Amino acid sequence: MPAFSKKSEERLNTCHPDLQAVCRELIKQYDFAVLCGHRGKAEQNAAFDAGNSRLIYPQSKHNTKPSLAVDIVPYPIDWGNLYRFREMLHRFDALARMMRERGEIESEFEYGADWESFKDYPHVEIKTKG
Ligand SMILES: [Zn+2]
To answer: The whole model's pTM is what?
Structure first.
């Protein structure tokens, strides 16, 4: 059974409990790494400068505590294989639905892979109302 690395575990621990809960179920059936949970000001602006985020601090859902967003990638990492990203996100979404039905989590999620203007394949965030 796949398991998180120490780094992935540390990053996941900075995330909202519902993101953590789904990731902890997903790792049991699909190997992936957590690249990012919470981002502070310096990290957020560095991500913006590198073109990895379209938002400056504190506008990203990675900037809250706990983080309302997580970046996850199939492991081993192959940025060119978008099929594996979709497969991972499909499983994430199926687990999330099931866990909502069971009352284990409340959150609904939005996927950066679904964004039209800026495809952000690793990005999963909690939908906020309003
Ligand atoms: Zn992200």
So the answer is: 0.96
